[in-house]
Write a structure and sequence with these properties.
Length: about 300
C-alpha cells in the first residue's frame, strides 16, 4: 500500500538557537530526518513530503531531497518526494495577521499546508526527532488497516525516554484504555530533575510527580486524508479566538486530536514504543545525540553512511 511520510521541518528552533532541522548530527553529517526517512522507506513508505519554510527547498534538496528521489521503495518503484510550504498564505481572508508575527502557526497548520500533495494514508513526524529504528514498521502496518474516515493512530513513547536534562520540554501527555487514546493534554513545562523525578512545573515546582511510564505523543501520528477537513475547521476556530495582538499562539495538532477523541469523531489506536527517543531541543542536547548516532552506526543498526 502507498503511504507517505510527512516531515514537519518549518519550525524556527528558537530554544536550540538555529536551524536544528538541517544540522548535521550523524557521523557523516547526516541530519536527523535522514534517519527517519531511511527507517520509513525500509518499513514500506514510498513517498516523502517535506513541510518547510519558503526559501528552504534548495537547501533540503541539496542535503537529502535529490538523493531520496533516487532511492527505491520496497515495491521497486522510485520514492516520490514532494514539498509543501508553511507560510502565512491560506489563512482566512477575514483574519488580519499582526505585522509583528514571525512565529509559525503551529503543527496543525503545518499539516494542513501539505493537503495539496498528500492524497494517501500518511504518517506525520518532527524533523528534529529520532524515533527509533523499528518504530516505523508498526505504524506503516497500522496505516494499511485504517478505515478511510474517523480513525487514526499514533506511536506512544514512555515519558522518561523523551525528557531532557538541559531544560523543560513540551509533550502531549496521553491517557489510554485498551490500546486506544482517551485523552491527550499538551503539557508545556515538563522538567527532569537530577534524581530522576519528572514534574510538570507550569504551575510551580511542587506539582505532582509524573510517572516515568506515562505514554506521551512525540508528534508521530498516522492519518488518512479525512483529517484535512477537520484541520481546516480547527484552524478557522483558532483564528476566530485569537486576540488581535496575539503573535505567539499556535494551532497544535494534539489539541485537535484531543477534541476529536473527546467528541467521539476520531478513534486513535496507540502503538506503544519503548525505544529511546532523542532530539535536539537545546544546543546542549547535541553532543549526546551525536554520540548515540555514532554508536548506532557502529552497532550495524545503520550502514556506515546513509549517503552512499
Amino acid at each position: 500500500m502507498k503511504a507517505a511520510l510527512v516531515i514537519m521541518a518549518a519550525g524556527l528552533g528558537s530554544r536550540y538557537g538555529g536551524e536544528k532541522q538541517v544540522d548535521g548530527l550523524g557521523p557523516n553529517g547526516e541530519i536527523l530526518m535522514e534517519y527517519s526517512i531511511y527507517d520509513a522507506i525500509r518499513a514500506g513508505f514510498s513517498k516523502v513530503v517535506f513541510i518547510i519554510k519558503p526559501g528552504m527547498q534548495e537547501l533540503v534538496e541539496r542535503l537529502c531531497g535529490k538523493r531520496i528521489a533516487q532511492m527505491k521503495a520496497n515495491d521497486g518503484t522510485d520514492v516520490e518526494v514532494a514539498y509543501a510550504f508553511q507560510d502565512f498564505s491560506g489563512i482566512p481572508e477575514w483574519y488580519e495577521l499582526p505585522a509583528e508575527r514571525t512565529k509559525p502557526l503551529g503543527t496543525a497548520h503545518a499539516v494542513l499546508c501539505a493537503r495539496s500533495v498528500v492524497h494517501e494514508p500518511f504518517a506525520v513526524i518532527n524533523a528534529d526527532d529520532y524515533y527509533g529504528s523499528n518504530a516505523f514498521f508498526p505504524i506503516y502496518e497500522e496505516l494499511c488497516r485504517l478505515p478511510e474516515t474517523g480513525a487514526a493512530t499514533m506511536v506512544g513513547y514512555r515519558l522518561d525516554k523523551t525528557v531532557s536534562a538541559n531544560g523543560t520540554v513540551t509533550r502531549g501527555v496521553c491517557q489510554t484504555e485498551n490500546g486506544r487514546l482517551t485523552k491527550i493534554v499538551e503539557t508545556f513545562k515538563i522538567k527532569l530533575y537530577p534524581n530522576g523525578d519528572i514534574r510538570d512545573i507550569q504551575n510551580g515546582e511542587d506539582s505532582p510527580l509524573l510517572p516515568p511510564e506515562t505514554p506521551v505523543s512525540m508528534n508521530f501520528w498516522g492519518f488518512t486524508p479525512w483529517l484535512f477537513d477537520k484541520l481546516e475547521e480547527f484552524l478557522v476556530r483558532f483564528f476566530r479566538n485569537l486576540a488581535p495582538d496575539d503573535i505567539k499562539s499556535e494551532a497544535l495538532l494534539p489539541t485537535l486530536i484531543g477534541e476529536l477523541v473527546e467528541s467521539g469523531e476520531l478513534n486513535v489506536s496507540v502503538l506503544r514504543c519503548d525505544a529511546q527517543w532523542f532530539g535536539v531541543t537545546y544546543q546542549e542536547d547535541k553532543p549526546p545525540v551525536q554520540e548515540a548516532l555514532r554508536e548506532l552506526h557502529a552497532a550495524g543498526v545503520y550502514p556506515a553512511s546513509l549517503r552512499d
